[in-house]
Structure formats: C-alpha cells, structure tokens
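Page 42, continued from yesterday. The earlier attempt failed because a stray header line got pasted into the input along with the sequence. Redoing it now with the clean sequence only.
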Amino acid sequence: MKTAKPFFDTNVLLYLLSEDTQKADRAEAIIALGGVISVQVLNEFASVASRKLKMSYAEIRDTLSIIRSVCETQALTVGIHEQGLAIAEQFGFSLYDSLIVSAALDAGCSVLYSEDMQHGQAIGSLVISNPFLTAHLPS
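This time it went through. Structure tokens are written below.
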C-alpha cells in the first residue's frame, strides 16, 4: 500500500545537527511533517553522532526519541535484506543504500529523501529526491 509519507535517509536526519543552518532548517521542516525511517537509519545516525559528532549516548537517545516521535519506524526483516541484495545487484548501489531503498519500498513510500543518492531516480514505485535542491523543495 502506498503512503504519502516520505522515507528519510540517514543523511537527512544528520542535517538536524548541522552547522549549515539552511540545511538544518530544511531537514527540520520536512521531518516535522512526519515520515518513515528504518532501524538501520537509527543505527547509522547513532554511529555517526557518536563517532564523528562526539555526542554522548544520552544526547543520541534524546535526539532519536524526538525523531521517533514524528516518524514511523520500519523494522528490518529478512525480506528487506533479500530485496536489498537484489537492488544492490541491479542498480549498483552500496548494500547499505540498497537496504534503505528496500525498507522504503517495503513501507510503501513513494518518495525517499536522500542527499547521497541520485536525485530523480525511480526504483519501482519509489523516487529518490534530494530535499536540499532548491528547485525541488517539497512544500
């Protein structure tokens, strides 16, 4: 079943913590409208926040708690894993990007917001959109 809710890649969530205020504000605005994330996104966020941003685990938990309060969380399954392998093979994405795409498809999302993947690329019923491109900002 299709959902109007977008799926958020990890990089979009990480912009909430960015010193680039334009991207931080944009990320906050679109995430506040709600959407879907996966457990993988939560894990990747926690890893980068700890390792690169030197956040404490208490700060990470607090931030992720806020994100989870506005976003649905898609569980990872063997089916998502298998589909992710097929996507990696067919489209040449990294395995981790392919798992994000697979989780978004499994959740029925029609849009995947990501800065790292090819803007406008369609994978099945899912379209990748860079929310930071000014010509393509969702309202």
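Notes: The chain has six helices and six strands.
Reminder to self: strip header lines before submitting.
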